[in-house]
Write a structure and sequence with these properties.
This protein is 0% helix and 49% strand. The two termini are 28 Å apart. The chain is elongated, with a radius of gyration of 20 Å. The protein is mainly β. It has one domain. The model has no long low-confidence stretch (mean pLDDT 88). It has no helices and eight strands. Strands 1, 2, 3, 4, 5, 6, 7 and 8 form an eight-stranded antiparallel sheet that branches.
Length: 127
Amino acid sequence: MPLVNVVGFLSKNDLFDSATYITELTYNRLQKVTANPNAFYGVGYAACATNKMMDGCATREYWGLALQFEPKWYQVWSGVDLSLPMFLQTGLKGNSPLVFGGWEGNGSYSLGLTGRHVEKILAEPAI
């Protein structure tokens, strides 16, 4: 579940014409296992034989962070605007008890380049 979200806009400076940013801090906490506790793959439960977070066992708490930043440059060429969307998501502490919730030290990132010509043609190659 998202804990804190921040959305913002930065105006023109020496590096870009404008930019947007989004940040999200995520927190999950396991309150209790209500059914089949022997099947729950978490620290302190039978299914997690090693009882180690590093083996993928869920922990009671999980913290994650996601960051997105997109600077924009207007009229780089006649009728062409460019932007450089960047994204980073990572698990800060613990392994989430939720499916696909996140794992400590694991995450993803992306970097792209977007060109818009007279706001009619869109090209977005991404890495």
